[in-house]
Amino acid sequence: MSARQLILIVEDNEANQLLTRSVLELEGYAVEVAGSANEAFEVLRERTPDLILMDIQLPGEDGLAATKRLKAYPATATIPVVALTAHAMAGDREHALAAGCAGYISKPIDTRTFGMAVKEFLRMVDRDRPVLAS
Ligand code: MN
Fold it and tell me: Does the 6-133 domain belong in CATH 3.40.50.2300?
């Protein structure tokens, strides 16, 4: 019996925080919300989420820089990061992947498909994770 999977949402917009949190909690996930990259790193000192949803546009350090920093630390490098981007620009996906993101979800989120998209990312990550002998 495993504990609920934990998702860290890094998002500065309060309406988006509430929306993403409520959708994910309804899907059965445990959720932490950080309003900035610095807040996210504070959460990561205490907890290791199964997935991070990272807004690209944040006050202070932006989501891509924060992702690069996460990927540089052994303690956080293996946590999958999915970018949340308001930009539908073609180059954004490449920028997100180059920064170390596993993929991206466009904002505004579609509440009908968001939970499924997150579930798919978690499944994809589980498949890629090496199986350790116990
Ligand atoms: Mn933002």
Answer: yes
CB burial of 110-124 (b: ≥16 within 10 Å; e: otherwise) equals eeeebbebbbebbee
Cα of 70 vs centre of ligand 1, distance in Å, is 18
111: confidence class by pLDDT, cuts 50, 70, 90: very high
User: Tokens standing for 67?
Assistant: 């992702």
Supply the pTM of this predicted model.
0.90
Q: How confident is the model at residue 134 (pLDDT cuts 50, 70, 90)?
A: very low
Whether 133 shows a pLDDT value over 70: the answer reads no
Q: Could you tell me the distance, in angstroms and rounded to a whole number, from the CA of residue 88 to the centre of ligand 1?
A: 14
Let me know: does 33 contact 53? Beta carbons within 8 Å: no
Distance 23 CA to ligand 1 centre (A): 18
How far, in Å, is the centroid of ligand 1 from the Cα of 5?
A: 24
Distance CA 101, CA 68 (A): 9
